[in-house]
Structure formats: C-alpha cells, structure tokens
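Ops channel
N.P.: pipeline sanity check, posting one input/output pair.
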C-alpha cells in the first residue's frame, strides 16, 4: 500500500549485520580488479546529448552521474549477493507489491544483480532523473556523508509538461523527500513516477546493491546501458 501511494517503501533490517559485513567483504575483494568507473551526462529523462535544446530548456539541462559498478558475472557462483537475488520469495514479494501479472529474474549476465560504489574522492552522485523502469529494488550496505537519496513524489506528469528547468526547480522546492538510509535495509521505489537523485558523496563510500527483475521473460540490457555502466557488452572471456 505504501508503494502504491508514495512510490516508495523502506523495509528495515532486511539483512542482519553479519550478512551485510559478508557482502561488503565481497565488494572490497572485487572493487580493485573488477569495478568499472561509469560517467554519464544526461537530462531528467535520461536522454543524452542536448541536440537543439538549450541549457535553459528542461530537456537541455544536463546532469552528471558517476559511480563504480561491479557486474554480476564478476561474482563467484557462491556469491552471497546472488543467493539473496535468486531467493524466489523476494521476486514474488516484489511482484505482489507492484501488482504485476508476472515478474522474472533478469536474463542479463552483467546487470541482473550488481554493486554500486559512490566514492567521496570523486564526489560521486546521481543527477536528477526519472527511471525508465517502473520499479527498482535497492539494498543499502554502507552509508556515507552526503550520498542522500532524494525524490519528489509523483512528479513525472507535472514536470513533463514544463518547458524549462527553472520551472521544474520552482516546482520541486519544498516537495523534496530525503528519507534516512540504513545499512541492511531494502528499499522499493517506483522511479519512473518520481524525480530523484543521489546527492554528491562528501566523505567515505556509499555502497548499495541493485536487484533487477523484468516483466518480460528473457529481457536483457541494451548496448548503450551495458557500455555506460559496465564498459563491455557481455561476460569476460
């Protein structure tokens, strides 16, 4: 009910402290050798390139996003993260929460489940945007200074009809929600409905995991997404 009403739901204590520590050990073991640093410039609709749009126009306003990602195929078959991702009651729960007729684990070998690392050394951030997917499942493992998740509930319809970013800024003023993030908590979010961002990380590292489920069985990521977020089009040879 909370997700349907607000497009957001916090499930505290999804993982216990020792399980979180195990996942963070996996992150540290893979970050240096397998992590891919991603940079992207985009507008609020995740379109790249301004084309004829000026910087003042809504579609011309450019935001930057950066982070390090660890792809699913770099994890061992015994990865504790993959054990959580492949636990079918979790998939069924998400299907029920969003009232979907069907829901499947992603068939993508890189992007089914993956780690995100936001580092203060690079002031990593996610710029304001709407997701293309209707829902996401985000497991917070480590918080930082900065790195706040912020969103404007059900703002897509209103902002889509605006011409300039200045109008959008005026609209979101006083409407931004900044929920507290807790290590071990699971967050469900309908990101296509609500403008959202991760503010720049100013100290430490913010670490989270993303679980990807799809409504169309066999669906995989497109070439642009694979190149942008993983730096390759398929599993390592």
């Amino acid at each position: 009910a909370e997700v349907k009403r607000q497009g957001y739901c916090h499930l505290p204590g999804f993982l216990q402290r020792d399980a979180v520590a195990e996942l963070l050990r996996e992150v540290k073991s893979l970050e240096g050798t397998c992590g891919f640093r991603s940079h992207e410039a985009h507008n609020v609709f995740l379109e790249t390139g301004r084309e004829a749009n000026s910087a003042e126009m809504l579609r011309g306003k450019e935001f930057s996003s950066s982070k390090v990602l660890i792809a699913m195929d770099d994890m061992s078959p015994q990865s504790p993260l993959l054990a959580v991702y492949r636990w079918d009651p979790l998939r069924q729960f998400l299907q029920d929460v969003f009232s979907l007729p069907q829901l499947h684990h992603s068939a993508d070998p890189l992007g089914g489940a993956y780690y995100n690392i936001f580092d203060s050394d690079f002031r990593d951030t996610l710029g304001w945007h709407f997701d293309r997917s209707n829902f996401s499942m985000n497991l917070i493992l480590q918080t930082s200074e900065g790195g706040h998740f912020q969103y404007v509930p059900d703002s897509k319809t209103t902002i889509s009809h605006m011409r300039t970013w200045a109008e959008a800024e005026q609209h979101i003023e006083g409407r931004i929600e900044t929920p507290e993030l807790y290590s071990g908590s699971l967050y469900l979010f309908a990101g296509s409905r609500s403008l959202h961002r991760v503010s720049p990380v100013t100290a430490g590292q913010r670490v989270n995991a993303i679980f990807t489920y799809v409504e169309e069985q066999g669906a995989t990521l497109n070439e642009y997404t694979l190149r942008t977020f993983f730096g390759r089009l398929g599993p390592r040879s």
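N.P.: looks fine end to end. The longest strand covers residues 63-70.
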